[in-house]
Amino acid sequence: MRVSMTSAGAIALAMVMAPSLAAAQAAPEQTPAEVAAETGTDIVITGSRIRRDPLDNPSPVVTVDEAAIAKTGLSSIADVLQRIPASSGGLNTKFNNSGNLGNPPDGGGVGAGSAAIDLRYLGAKRTLVLVDGLRYVNGASASGIPGTVDLNSIPDVMIQRVEVLQSAASALYGSDAIGGVVNIITRSGQNGFRASAQYGQYLKEDDGATQNYQLSWGGGSDRVHLDLGGYYTKQDPVRAADRDISQFPNPGQTSCTDAIGGCSSFTALGRFLVNGQNITLRAPVIGRRAVYNPTLATGDFKTFTAADRFNFAPFNYFLTPNERYGGFVNARAEFSDLLNVRVKAVWNRRQSQNQAAFLPLGIGPDVGNGNLLDTISVDATNPFNPFGVTLVPGQNYTAIFRRLIENGQRTYSQTVDTMSVTGTLDGKFEVFGRNWYYDANAVLATNDAKQLFTGNVNAARLQQALGPVSQCTGSCVPFNFFGGVGSITPEMLGFVAFDERSRSQQRLNDFTFNLSGELFDLPGGAVGVALGYEHRDQQGSFTPDPIIQAGLGADIPAQAARGRFNVDEFYGELRLPLIRDVPFLQLVELNGAIRHSDFSTFGGNTTLTGGALWKPVTDLLLRGQYAESYRAASIGELFGAQSRFDQPLADPCSNIAGSPYRASATVRANCTANGVPANGSYAEPTGQLPVLTGGNAGLQPETAKTWLFGGVYSPAWARQGFASALSLEVNYYNIEVDGAIASIPADVLLNRCAQTGDALSCASVVRTNSGFISSINGVLLNTNGITTRGIDVTFNLRSRETGAGTFGLSVSGNYLLKYQEEVPATTGTTATNYTGTERGSPDQAYPHFKGQATLDWDIGAVAAAFTGRYIDDVVEIQGANRLKSRFYGDVQFTFRPTWIGERVGLTLGVNNVFDADPPACFSCSLNNYDPTTYDVPGRFGYARLSYGF
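and the corresponding structure tokens:
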């Protein structure tokens, strides 16, 4: 195993520190149920603002504590949460979209280097992320205005546990909580030091090294307490060239001449659609002007073939580099029962990078840049023009393609700073002998992102350098588009190339007040009530480089965007315990909540939720819930300017082998009507098609209805016998989203136009005179809706201590019954059922079943755990390729020496111990696999030294 001096030194430092910290003791973490059992009091848990026994939770909540996080061996909380079966993935550091794909059609930009959590396949924007029950500022990556929290902006060192509410909760928490709520509980009440140092890497490939160092301390008195900590995490890249699956644009491909295609027209020697010919250079031409013979019998040019295309695949990242560091302070002062003051401050910096192949530089209308590059002429006086005449776009040439290898690979480097300060006043008081609780909170937070892109070209300067040589004066250097690799000199690049600098910002000011208590008694207990008010102000902006705003870039276009909104909300929650301790009616409870929101952008809306709990016996809890949800369009969705998403997609109108165009006369007729030449000359292999993306100020809010039925069985006979804990929980959910904010998928538009001639779809597909697609309309709109339903199962078992130690088994799974999207057509709608499929770009798999199980064993100074993760097989919706099921195995061993009080632990682990590769995917965006669902190929080994855990 390769260990750098930096990581080795840090681990050695931690080993030296650990014995010296032995005098300080860190308190072990307690779950909410343990806290309630120990203190004999009810507490506030995620899913309700009324204090209650967590064992009677009206909503399904999965708790991921420090022990569960440690068993994964992962260094990002996003990676941990994305393993939950109810999670469908989301952005993570396996995405390398900048430059390769551009801005997806969701209004949020690329999101390079960020990470998000998506519950129920509804998109991360429909999962609400809270920190200690309060909102957190949305993330940014200097490429748009996302409507989601970047989990990479939250310091891992401050996370004590995560509570995942797997149900809608807009009535309690407001907009966005359609798929569920992720509530990150931060560290408080710690006594002493905790420290850890971890190093890991892919063992066989010797890459993807990850370092993670954390240090925290807590101390104080009963009434004044301080917790603080800092961390540093660094993840090195994995390159596509170092994995077999990503050597070419398609799985199993060995050459650009393979029939499947996929390699690029932007080649090192150039591709020239000139004088009705499709030609390229035979070899680089250096130090002279290329010779053009129209017959191609002699000279430097020949007919362009598939063998001349460029394989861009190995130049990408498979796993992007990511460096994060930051810290937190949690302070608490308790003056009396009536008044407590809490202050939390968080600062985090993320430095990340995406990388793409050398810039694909092209001019002419068939390139489809959508800017000045499409209209550039190459003057006859340009000293490198071999054709002897001025090349005029649309007249004697339609496209010139060149891979700008001389300018180096495109790199997109982000620096993202997040700052959040939270102040809280809370306390309790008595009214007529009953306790009432209040809290007033203020959250002030910012997220500031900057991105540097190296490798772009200024179109205006390129136009000057290709124009009349008499006008190329001053610093201008005539540009050589016709000599192939090595012919573009540093002086030429010095004039046309530039570093692109962009910035985005998000701001959150959130003020809340909550009051809860008891009103009177019913036969089942006290009636609980909670009331509250929230005022939230959010604003965001995206400022591309001035050259990009002028429409003069050669990469992904973008325009500045800015927006803000505020909302005032009032809510109320009621708990009615009707019956308790009656045979077959051990507990009967009704609960409900209502919330009214008044948005500056949309006006007012009211959401309701209602539910019932029934315990026929003490060991069995049954529950049902109905919830209405509401999601206002985010700033990016409303105000995001138009950009482009280069989606890997097959054009059904291309005259290539196996295409619908060749198979159907109806398709040929519809394609001709859409602008494809009737002579069949348009014959482009599968590649990337330009999708026009952007916000829509006319968007209306989404609404949703959720039905949930489930139960929890926790038998006393087991808990009083062989087990210290045993529970089985099963929940059924049905979610219907109406007016979902999305774009009509590009593949749906293309196929409807080609197959049926649907007018709405054909109007969304714009082609050049040669048949090339110049744009597909992917601008956001309110579609008809989304329907999803499924079953969650969770089983937990913990044995009592035996002579052989203690054993634990935790099993969770999700069975997806249905996931369907419905979008408008000219007449009626089009419904697509994605259940059991792989969507392809933008990547998302919808397996019928996902599950994971962890078996752990602990005896004295030794502990071991094995985690198995299973993903059912899926079929690509484009092409019917089957992605077979995958089983990942993770193993971990921990040793805690008794001679130093078991406060120091050494952990060794291997993730993907069976070396399972991801299934190959043809329609996925990059690297031929789905990064939302599957692991990076290779065994990942790690070692961790910890103190105080």
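(Above: one complete record from the training split.) Confidence is low (pLDDT under 50) at residues 1-30, 34-40.
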